Amino acid sequence: MKRRKRLLSNLLALMILTVMLAACSGGNNGSGSNDPTKAPDATKAPDGAAAEVKMPESLSYWVHLNPNAAATMAGLQESKIYQQLEKVTGTKVTFTHPSGEGAQIEEQFNLMLASKKLPDVIERNWLSVSRGPDDAIKSGTIIRLNELIEQHAPNLTKYMNEHPEIKKMIMTDEGNIYSFPFIRGHEKLMVFFGPIIRKDLLDKAGLPVPETIDEWETTLEAIKEANNGEPPFMQRISDMKTGHAFIGAFGIPLEFYNDNGTVKYGSMQPEYKEFLTVMNRWYEKGLLDPDFAAMDSKLMDSKITTGKTAAFVGYTGSGIGKYMGLMKDDPSFELVSAPYPTLTKGENAVWGQRDFAYTGIGAAITTAAKNPEQIVKWLDYAYGPEGHNLFNFGIEGESYTMVDGKPTYTDVIMKNPDDLPITQAMAQYFRSSYNGPFVQDPGYIEQYLELPSQKEALVNWEKATTNMRMPLTTLTAEEGRQKASIMTDLNVYHEEMLLKFIMGTEPLEKFDEYVETLKAMGIEEVIQLEQTALDRFLKR
């Protein structure tokens, strides 16, 4: 009998222990937190409502430092915006900024992933990441944010509910929201990049602003002759992905495009050879700066401000505005925009720069974050009224004041006492002059483009049509892996051949051989993947 009682007693204790362990585990029914495709559950109050979540005490944040910010700061921890954000939220942010540009940043990003030493937050263009955002979730780099946003990001949730077209953009075909997005909040914010030329040099040569490829060639030849033989035109290889200024004249873009529902790859079309022929001729004539392939921001600044470069491709703010500000003591220096060129006068180019409201840039939370729900709440601050003003205008009473109900920049921005260009003054106080996880306000651009030539640039550049742009499609994780396995090497080969064809180290007679090599490397397989993604997107 005693033995039986002891057995029952042990059995009862075991049952109690089992219940206690189940309670401690959260009752997840097998869907453990080790699954990187699922966001951690928010802490729940006894009645089932989400418990109060505090702002994080600290977090680590990886993001490229914009050149205008880098000109005056070692990192964003020195910026007024994040100093103010720390005062408001109590969150201390440790920033890591990869150095260099373009491919150098990607290399450092990949090395970080390989090291498995991830920060809490990574901000970048997630649509351009190798294998795509769905794979980044499935591989355990970042977490799915849908449920966390619903529970702890009321400001972003409200914005998405009011703008379902934006919600469609920031989700993948698998239904994942993967970052807190940078959103351009108005049409007037979406065009900002194109051809720029020295008007004072045009006036000296008695020439109008060029509109066609032939007019550009004539103009560049005249400027070169009058400017001691200096190569007058510059477009950095890194900017060609934003949009080569002249390829639209030939009816195609450089990369994938949507030809009435059919995906094509621009850099294998016959028109691409026509474009290369012109660029090669300009290179041979000394019209295209020979440093274009290795040009960084500092060298470009030097060439423009010393008068060596007379025409380039750039932005309304960090192009026209920046260099007009740097050269304000030279009354003869004047920059104006030119329309995207065509082959026939009077036509509009079929390809130019025009952003979507969302471009893939956003702040994602990594699987290394121990408190994702708190980080979600912190990131959501930027989408509320106070955060919106902070990210777009800075600190009230310092960088802006309210005038007739509108945030208006002070002289700290518009006439900086330290004589900083507007772009650099802005970068000290807020992020609307470039990007970040927030909604960009049109009030920024209305004040930023203070020069008539900047406002005229928008009119000139928006004439280029963008009907062939691929929408913001996403590949599945498996499709992303297939594409990455092909495009990693193919992109290297494409860029090498682009340079060789332009510089003449590879004759254009080998263009057909180049196309066949692209096919052998798998470009047609990638086109089919992109076609499948486009078909899916059109059915969303």
UniProtKB/TrEMBL annotation:
The keyword Heme does not apply. It comes from the Bacteria. Residues 1-22 form the signal peptide. Keywords: Cell membrane, Lipoprotein, Membrane, Palmitate, Signal. PROSITE patterns: PROKAR_LIPOPROTEIN (PS51257). Residues 29-50 are annotated as: Disordered. PANTHER family: ARABINOSE-BINDING PROTEIN-RELATED, POLYGALACTURONAN_RHAMNOGALACTURONAN-BINDING PROTEIN YTCQ. This is Extracellular solute-binding protein. The lineage of its organism: Bacteria, Bacillati, Bacillota, Bacilli, Bacillales.
